[in-house]
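Action item from last week, closing it out:
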Amino acid sequence: MLAPMDTPAIACRNLTRRFGDFIAVDDVSLAVTPGQFFGFLGPNGAGKSTTIKMLTGLLEASGGEIEILGQRFNAGSYELKRQIGVVPENMALLERLTAAEYLRFVGRMYGLDRETTASRSEELLGFMGLASEPKKLVADFSHGMQKKLALAAAVIHGPKLLFLDEPFEGLDAVAATTLKGMLQGMIHRGATIFLTSHVLEIVERLCSHVAIIDKGRLVANGSLEELREGVTSTGGEKITLEKIFLNIVGASQAETVPELSWLS
Protein backbone atom coordinates (compact mmCIF):
# COMPACT_ATOMS: atom_id res chain seq x y z
CA MET A 1 0.00 0.00 0.00
CA LEU A 2 1.46 3.35 -1.06
CA ALA A 3 1.43 6.28 1.34
CA PRO A 4 -0.28 9.50 0.23
CA MET A 5 2.09 12.03 -1.34
CA ASP A 6 1.70 14.42 1.64
CA THR A 7 2.74 11.70 4.10
CA PRO A 8 6.33 12.15 5.35
CA ALA A 9 8.86 9.61 4.14
CA ILE A 10 10.36 9.71 7.64
CA ALA A 11 8.61 10.89 10.79
CA CYS A 12 9.68 10.49 14.39
CA ARG A 13 8.04 11.87 17.51
CA ASN A 14 9.77 12.20 20.89
CA LEU A 15 12.47 9.75 19.79
CA THR A 16 14.74 8.90 22.73
CA ARG A 17 17.60 6.50 23.35
CA ARG A 18 19.24 5.89 26.71
CA PHE A 19 22.36 3.91 27.51
CA GLY A 20 22.07 3.45 31.25
CA ASP A 21 21.96 6.94 32.74
CA PHE A 22 23.28 8.55 29.56
CA ILE A 23 20.71 10.01 27.14
CA ALA A 24 22.22 9.80 23.64
CA VAL A 25 19.10 11.03 21.81
CA ASP A 26 16.70 13.20 23.76
CA ASP A 27 13.07 13.69 22.65
CA VAL A 28 13.78 14.28 18.94
CA SER A 29 10.85 14.98 16.61
CA LEU A 30 11.21 15.64 12.88
CA ALA A 31 9.63 14.90 9.50
CA VAL A 32 11.23 14.43 6.08
CA THR A 33 9.17 15.05 2.95
CA PRO A 34 9.20 12.42 0.16
CA GLY A 35 11.82 13.25 -2.48
CA GLN A 36 13.82 15.43 -0.10
CA PHE A 37 17.61 15.40 0.25
CA PHE A 38 17.84 15.86 4.01
CA GLY A 39 21.04 16.65 5.89
CA PHE A 40 21.38 15.62 9.54
CA LEU A 41 24.29 17.39 11.21
CA GLY A 42 25.95 17.63 14.59
CA PRO A 43 29.29 17.55 16.41
CA ASN A 44 30.99 14.24 17.22
CA GLY A 45 28.96 12.39 19.82
CA ALA A 46 25.83 14.49 19.24
CA GLY A 47 23.58 11.48 18.53
CA LYS A 48 23.53 11.35 14.71
CA SER A 49 24.52 7.70 14.24
CA THR A 50 22.32 6.59 17.14
CA THR A 51 19.35 8.34 15.51
CA ILE A 52 20.01 6.65 12.15
CA LYS A 53 20.29 3.25 13.85
CA MET A 54 16.86 3.73 15.43
CA LEU A 55 15.30 5.02 12.19
CA THR A 56 16.55 1.93 10.32
CA GLY A 57 15.75 -0.68 12.97
CA LEU A 58 19.38 -1.40 13.89
CA LEU A 59 18.80 -0.14 17.42
CA GLU A 60 15.65 -0.17 19.52
CA ALA A 61 14.43 3.20 20.76
CA SER A 62 13.99 3.76 24.47
CA GLY A 63 10.95 5.91 23.76
CA GLY A 64 8.99 7.68 21.04
CA GLU A 65 7.46 6.65 17.72
CA ILE A 66 8.82 6.17 14.21
CA GLU A 67 6.93 6.10 10.90
CA ILE A 68 8.62 5.14 7.64
CA LEU A 69 6.78 5.72 4.35
CA GLY A 70 3.57 6.31 6.30
CA GLN A 71 3.70 3.13 8.39
CA ARG A 72 4.66 2.46 11.99
CA PHE A 73 8.20 1.14 12.08
CA ASN A 74 10.14 -1.11 14.43
CA ALA A 75 12.87 -3.75 14.31
CA GLY A 76 10.39 -6.33 12.96
CA SER A 77 9.08 -4.25 10.04
CA TYR A 78 10.68 -6.50 7.42
CA GLU A 79 8.64 -5.38 4.40
CA LEU A 80 9.41 -1.74 5.13
CA LYS A 81 13.10 -2.57 5.51
CA ARG A 82 13.09 -3.92 1.95
CA GLN A 83 12.30 -0.38 0.78
CA ILE A 84 15.21 1.12 2.74
CA GLY A 85 18.91 1.29 1.89
CA VAL A 86 21.48 1.91 4.62
CA VAL A 87 25.19 2.68 4.79
CA PRO A 88 25.74 2.42 8.56
CA GLU A 89 28.55 3.95 10.57
CA ASN A 90 30.69 0.79 10.61
CA MET A 91 29.55 -0.56 7.18
CA ALA A 92 29.14 -4.13 8.62
CA LEU A 93 30.41 -5.99 5.53
CA LEU A 94 30.99 -9.76 5.26
CA GLU A 95 34.74 -9.67 4.81
CA ARG A 96 35.37 -13.29 3.78
CA LEU A 97 33.39 -12.84 0.55
CA THR A 98 34.39 -11.23 -2.72
CA ALA A 99 32.57 -8.04 -3.72
CA ALA A 100 30.43 -9.93 -6.25
CA GLU A 101 29.53 -12.62 -3.72
CA TYR A 102 28.59 -9.99 -1.17
CA LEU A 103 26.33 -8.10 -3.58
CA ARG A 104 24.65 -11.33 -4.67
CA PHE A 105 24.00 -12.16 -1.02
CA VAL A 106 22.55 -8.70 -0.31
CA GLY A 107 20.39 -8.73 -3.44
CA ARG A 108 18.88 -12.09 -2.53
CA MET A 109 18.27 -10.91 1.04
CA TYR A 110 16.28 -8.00 -0.36
CA GLY A 111 14.16 -10.44 -2.38
CA LEU A 112 15.59 -9.84 -5.86
CA ASP A 113 15.61 -12.81 -8.23
CA ARG A 114 18.96 -14.33 -9.24
CA GLU A 115 19.04 -12.82 -12.72
CA THR A 116 18.27 -9.30 -11.51
CA THR A 117 20.75 -9.63 -8.66
CA ALA A 118 23.52 -10.79 -11.00
CA SER A 119 22.97 -8.05 -13.58
CA ARG A 120 22.73 -5.27 -11.00
CA SER A 121 25.81 -6.58 -9.16
CA GLU A 122 27.85 -6.51 -12.36
CA GLU A 123 26.66 -3.00 -13.20
CA LEU A 124 27.33 -1.70 -9.67
CA LEU A 125 30.84 -3.18 -9.52
CA GLY A 126 31.70 -1.43 -12.77
CA PHE A 127 30.07 1.82 -11.66
CA MET A 128 31.97 1.82 -8.35
CA GLY A 129 35.29 0.83 -9.92
CA LEU A 130 35.42 -2.51 -8.09
CA ALA A 131 35.39 -4.92 -11.04
CA SER A 132 39.13 -5.14 -11.72
CA GLU A 133 39.97 -7.66 -8.96
CA PRO A 134 37.08 -10.15 -8.91
CA LYS A 135 38.81 -12.68 -6.59
CA LYS A 136 39.92 -10.19 -3.96
CA LEU A 137 38.22 -10.60 -0.57
CA VAL A 138 36.45 -7.69 1.06
CA ALA A 139 38.84 -8.05 4.02
CA ASP A 140 41.69 -7.01 1.71
CA PHE A 141 39.92 -3.92 0.37
CA SER A 142 41.07 -0.43 1.31
CA HIS A 143 38.70 1.65 3.44
CA GLY A 144 37.57 3.58 0.36
CA MET A 145 36.85 0.37 -1.58
CA GLN A 146 34.84 -0.98 1.34
CA LYS A 147 32.85 2.24 1.48
CA LYS A 148 32.04 1.96 -2.24
CA LEU A 149 30.93 -1.65 -1.76
CA ALA A 150 28.70 -0.62 1.16
CA LEU A 151 27.14 2.06 -1.06
CA ALA A 152 26.57 -0.47 -3.84
CA ALA A 153 24.86 -2.84 -1.41
CA ALA A 154 22.64 -0.03 -0.12
CA VAL A 155 21.18 0.73 -3.57
CA ILE A 156 21.12 -2.68 -5.30
CA HIS A 157 17.39 -3.10 -4.62
CA GLY A 158 16.43 0.43 -5.73
CA PRO A 159 15.34 1.74 -2.32
CA LYS A 160 12.69 4.42 -1.88
CA LEU A 161 14.55 5.71 1.15
CA LEU A 162 18.33 5.84 1.60
CA PHE A 163 20.17 6.48 4.89
CA LEU A 164 23.83 7.45 4.58
CA ASP A 165 26.13 7.81 7.59
CA GLU A 166 29.33 9.60 6.45
CA PRO A 167 29.22 8.18 2.89
CA PHE A 168 32.06 10.38 1.58
CA GLU A 169 34.57 9.39 4.25
CA GLY A 170 37.55 7.67 2.61
CA LEU A 171 36.43 8.32 -0.97
CA ASP A 172 38.78 9.93 -3.45
CA ALA A 173 37.66 12.98 -5.45
CA VAL A 174 36.63 10.93 -8.50
CA ALA A 175 34.56 8.46 -6.47
CA ALA A 176 32.97 11.29 -4.46
CA THR A 177 31.92 13.06 -7.68
CA THR A 178 30.45 9.82 -9.05
CA LEU A 179 28.55 9.25 -5.82
CA LYS A 180 27.13 12.78 -5.77
CA GLY A 181 25.85 12.29 -9.31
CA MET A 182 24.24 8.97 -8.39
CA LEU A 183 22.52 10.46 -5.33
CA GLN A 184 21.17 13.43 -7.26
CA GLY A 185 19.84 11.00 -9.87
CA MET A 186 18.01 9.07 -7.15
CA ILE A 187 16.42 12.30 -5.88
CA HIS A 188 15.27 13.17 -9.42
CA ARG A 189 13.59 9.75 -9.60
CA GLY A 190 11.66 10.41 -6.39
CA ALA A 191 13.78 8.71 -3.72
CA THR A 192 14.34 10.30 -0.31
CA ILE A 193 17.87 10.56 1.14
CA PHE A 194 18.83 11.11 4.79
CA LEU A 195 22.50 12.09 5.00
CA THR A 196 24.93 12.70 7.83
CA SER A 197 28.35 14.12 7.02
CA HIS A 198 31.01 16.32 8.58
CA VAL A 199 31.84 17.71 5.13
CA LEU A 200 29.52 20.72 5.33
CA GLU A 201 30.33 21.94 1.81
CA ILE A 202 28.94 18.71 0.36
CA VAL A 203 25.84 18.87 2.54
CA GLU A 204 25.24 22.48 1.46
CA ARG A 205 25.62 21.52 -2.20
CA LEU A 206 23.33 18.49 -2.06
CA CYS A 207 20.71 19.02 0.63
CA SER A 208 17.63 21.25 0.50
CA HIS A 209 16.79 20.84 4.18
CA VAL A 210 18.95 20.40 7.26
CA ALA A 211 18.46 19.46 10.91
CA ILE A 212 21.14 19.95 13.55
CA ILE A 213 21.45 17.85 16.70
CA ASP A 214 23.64 18.77 19.65
CA LYS A 215 24.06 16.78 22.88
CA GLY A 216 21.17 14.57 21.84
CA ARG A 217 18.66 17.36 21.29
CA LEU A 218 17.42 18.86 18.02
CA VAL A 219 18.52 22.50 17.95
CA ALA A 220 17.66 23.51 14.35
CA ASN A 221 15.47 22.18 11.55
CA GLY A 222 14.45 23.76 8.26
CA SER A 223 15.40 24.66 4.73
CA LEU A 224 18.81 26.23 4.16
CA GLU A 225 17.07 29.52 3.40
CA GLU A 226 15.20 29.39 6.71
CA LEU A 227 18.36 28.61 8.65
CA ARG A 228 20.24 31.46 6.96
CA GLU A 229 17.59 33.91 8.17
CA GLY A 230 18.70 33.26 11.75
CA VAL A 231 22.33 34.24 11.11
CA THR A 232 23.56 37.81 10.86
CA SER A 233 25.68 38.57 7.81
CA THR A 234 28.62 40.96 8.27
CA GLY A 235 29.85 43.02 5.36
CA GLY A 236 27.64 41.24 2.85
CA GLU A 237 29.52 37.95 3.22
CA LYS A 238 27.80 34.76 2.09
CA ILE A 239 26.13 32.87 4.91
CA THR A 240 27.45 29.35 4.42
CA LEU A 241 26.23 26.18 6.10
CA GLU A 242 29.49 26.17 8.08
CA LYS A 243 28.68 29.63 9.45
CA ILE A 244 25.14 28.50 10.30
CA PHE A 245 26.47 25.39 12.03
CA LEU A 246 29.05 27.29 14.08
CA ASN A 247 26.50 29.93 14.97
CA ILE A 248 24.16 27.30 16.37
CA VAL A 249 26.45 24.77 18.05
CA GLY A 250 30.03 25.95 17.89
CA ALA A 251 30.27 29.71 18.30
CA SER A 252 31.75 29.63 21.79
CA GLN A 253 34.34 27.00 20.85
CA ALA A 254 35.27 28.80 17.62
CA GLU A 255 35.86 32.15 19.28
CA THR A 256 38.60 30.83 21.57
CA VAL A 257 40.93 28.48 19.72
CA PRO A 258 43.16 26.54 22.15
CA GLU A 259 46.88 26.28 21.49
CA LEU A 260 49.50 23.65 22.28
CA SER A 261 52.34 25.13 24.28
CA TRP A 262 55.10 23.49 22.24
CA LEU A 263 53.58 24.46 18.86
CA SER A 264 52.54 28.04 19.58
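Closing note: The longest strand covers residues 22-32.
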